Amino acid sequence: MSAADLGHLYPDHTYRALETQALRVGARRPPKPSVTRQRMLRYLQRNVAVTTVDIATDLALQTGEVRKIINALHQERVVHIEAYRGVSPMYAQGAGEDMTRSQWAKVRKEKKVRSQPNSIPVEFHADWPKIIVIRAETGQHVPPRDPLIAAMYGNPVPDRNA
Known about the structure:
Strand content: 5-15%
Largest sheet: 2 strands, antiparallel
Oligomer: single chain
Number of strands: 2
């Protein structure tokens, strides 16, 4: 019961007095479901492969609290390790197979061998949006200067009328 309901049933007693009486007879309130845990589960439904730092940043939580809840969810097989970002495991919702660090290293090595030598290594996941990366040309391009600025910085523009 809520404190308001108890107040209606026992109008002559304070909430603290009722709480003290309940503790004397051994009655305890059931633990409240963690609001943070529910928020994290909703976040994991919308996002695939996120680290504890990603979750903490996006939900404005403390990293230690997120790590504790994620470890509990992992032990309950509610989340699994989808991949790694550096040394940080990336979690996804569901009772999938955990990826080990050695499996991830093998996948990364295969991706590097298949990729072109000058390309940027890009990771893909089936649920992630497709992003196309285009590399700009590396040719030298000097923007045109007006004569006053060029003269101030010691590189005068040649006179076009001469």
